Amino acid sequence: MKVLLDTNVLFSAVLSADSTPMRAFCKAVTPPNRLFICEQTIEELKRTFQAKFPQRLPQLHRFIDNSLILANIVPIPPKPVEDEALIRDESDRPIFRAAASALVDVFVTGDKDFLESGILNPKIMTPTAFIHFIFQEIT
């Protein structure tokens, strides 16, 4: 399964190794799943940590370095994709565009603009829902 994790999920995973977002990250990198990260997400993580947690930048950089080994980095296509307009926040649309163009199966986020968009493909779910979904797929 191809899984794209949103910035807020990765942000929380970096901050807390015992968090649900970190468990979602671990599931996303465990075969047969494949992790996808939008190139914009990496830049957002760096900017946010620099502004809010500059003392934890080394931790972020270690996480990014390790994640890049496991992840497929997805560029943002220049042209809008179908369903993109269903996302309220226009600044979020490029991340969805990257997920759609990479043909991911699941987009994991905590952002209500995505979760409440009504988009069905890819599946958009919270980290908790993703973990439950993975366990249902296994059994």
Question: In a few lines, what is going on in this structure?
Answer:
With 139 residues, the protein is of the alpha/beta class.
Helix/strand layout:
Blueprint: E1 2-5, H1 7-15, H2 20-29, E2 34-38, H3 39-52, H4 57-70, E3 71-74, H5 93-101, E4 106-108, H6 112-115, E5 123-125, H7 127-138
Helix pairs in contact: 1-2, 1-3, 2-7, 3-4
Give Rg in angstroms.
14 Å
Residue fraction in strands = 5-15%
Written as H for each helix and E for each strand, in order along the chain, the element string is EHHEHHEHEHEH
Low-confidence stretches: none
Structure description:
This protein is an alpha/beta fold. It has a single domain (2-138), classed as Rossmann fold (3-Layer(aba) Sandwich), CATH 3.40.50.1010. 52% of the residues lie in helices and 14% in strands. It contains seven helices and five strands, in the order βααβααβαβαβα. It has a five-stranded parallel beta sheet with strand order 3-2-1-4-5. β4, α6 and β5 (123-125) form a beta-alpha-beta unit. The longest helix has 14 residues, at 39-52. It starts with a strand and ends with a helix. The mean pLDDT is 94.
What tags apply to this protein structure?
globular; alpha/beta; 7 helices; five-stranded parallel sheet; 139 residues
